[in-house]
Write a structure and sequence with these properties.
The structure is a single chain. By secondary structure, this protein is α+β, with helices and mostly antiparallel strands. About 25% of the residues lie in helices and about 45% in strands. It contains two helices and ten strands, in the order βααβββββββββ. It has helices at about 5-25, 30-50, and strands at about 1-5, 60, 65-70, 75-80, 90-95, 100-105, 105-110, 115-125, 130-140, 145-160. Strands 1, 3, 5, 7, 9 and 10 form a six-stranded mixed β-sheet that branches.
Length: about 160
């Protein structure tokens, strides 16, 4: 999935006042606004093409299969993107059910040698079967104008038992 970053939206919005001023001062040059929009769209398209494609980024998750209530566990999320098109940084998030709480909610780490990883703390909230449903990862293109996103459907089961 590809969608614009805050930087791209602010860049597009930055041209609005100038375009309005040009349109009011010299109505014959109203096409400057269209040119600004086309330039921003071209930059966004270039950023989308030059960034690492989601199919090139390999996601993995390691998590415990059994945890005691009141114990803090750990899940390790990793991303690998070999080659020169590896992103500078990547943001991870874990999607869990109500029985597990992952912290931090989101973590941003830098790529080093084509690999990035982060550790999430897992805090069991209730006994039963906790689920880690998905690992979400997103990164920006080289210009920082688009987000690229990938998910890993883990459907990982964590059995939460009483800690006696």
């Amino acid at each position: 999935m590809i969608y614009p970053t805050r930087r791209a939206i602010l860049l597009a919005a930055a041209g609005a006042p100038a375009s309005l001023a040009v349109g009011l001062a010299a109505p014959g040059y109203w096409l400057a606004a269209v040119g600004w929009i086309a330039m921003v769209a071209g930059l966004v398209l270039a950023d989308a093409v030059l960034g690492a494609a989601p199919r090139r980024v390999r996601l993995a998750l390691e998590a415990p299969g059994l945890m005691g209530l009141g114990e803090i566990g750990e899940a390790v999320a990793t991303a690998a993107c070999p080659g020169p098109l590896a992103p500078r940084g990547i943001e991870f998030a874990l999607e869990t059910d109500a029985r597990l709480q992952a912290s931090p909610e989101r973590a941003t780490v830098a790529f080093g040698d084509g690999v990035a990883g982060v550790r999430f703390q897992l805090d069991p909230r209730r006994r039963g079967e906790g689920h880690i449903d998905r690992l979400w990862a997103r990164w920006t293109g080289p210009l920082g104008l688009v987000w690229r996103q990938a998910t890993l459907a883990t459907e990982r089961l964590v059995v939460i038992t009483p800690n006696i």
